[in-house]
C-alpha cells in the first residue's frame, strides 16, 4: 500500500490517489460538525501538512444540513474541494442520504448509529456515548473525530492541545476525543 502522507499510516483498506486524503464530516446544525472539521484541520497543519477546509451550512442555526470537507496533502493542494470521498463521517441520517451518491467502494464510512442507520461502514453511537459519559450530546463531535483518527490509524497529539486552546469545556472535549480513539481502536481490532 502506498502511503499518502509521510509518517501517517493509513487504514489497510484505504487506497490513496493524488497524495491526498479527502474527508467529509456531515450532519445537522448544532452537532459541532464545523468545529470538528476546524479542530482536525488545524491539527494536520500543526503536523506540517497542507490542508484545505471548506464548510457549508444552511441558514438554520440548528437542525439544517451542514458539512465540512477537508483535503490533506504533503504537496500543494491545487483544488480545495473533494476529488473523491476517502472518509465520510456521518453524524445524522439526513446527511448520509444527501451525500450517499458520492460514496464508492473505497470510501470508509463512519456513522453515528444513534442517529443514522446507513447499513454500511462502521457504526458507533457517538450521541449515546456522549449522553452517557457527559450527560449531553454536545461532545459527540469530538468522539467522532477521535474515532476517525483511530480508524485512519493515525495519532495526532496536537488535537488535544488545539481542543484546550479553542474550545470551552476543554477537558470534557479532550476526554470525548480520547473516548473516540479508544472506541475506534476497539472497532479496528474486531474488524481484523
What does this structure look like?
A six-stranded mixed β-sheet has the order 2-3-1-4-5-6. It has six helices and six strands, in the order βαβββαββαααα. Helix content is 38%, strand content 20%. Helix 1 packs across helix 4 (140-151), helix 1 (33-46) packs across helix 5 (158-166) and helix 3 (126-134) crosses helix 4 (140-151). The radius of gyration is 15 Å and the shape is globular. The protein is an alpha/beta fold. The protein has one domain: 3-Layer(aba) Sandwich (Pyruvate-ferredoxin Oxidoreductase, domain 3), CATH 3.40.920.10. It starts with 19 loop residues before the first strand and ends with a helix.
Q: What descriptive keywords fit this protein?
A:
38% helix; Pyruvate-ferredoxin Oxidoreductase, domain 3; 192 residues; alpha/beta; 6 strands; 6 helices
Q: Which overall shape is indicated by the principal axes computed on the Cα atoms? A: globular
The strand order across the widest sheet is: 2-3-1-4-5-6
Classified by CATH, the class is Alpha Beta
The secondary-structure element order is: EHEEEHEEHHHH
Q: Judging by the overall fold, what is the CATH architecture?
A: 3-Layer(aba) Sandwich
This entry's quaternary arrangement is single chain
Question: Strand percentage, roughly?
Answer: 15-25%
Helix/strand class: alpha/beta
Evaluate the radius of gyration: 15 Å
CATH topology: Pyruvate-ferredoxin Oxidoreductase, domain 3
Helix content bin? 25-40%
List unreliable stretches of 5+ residues. 1-17
DSSP strand tally: 6
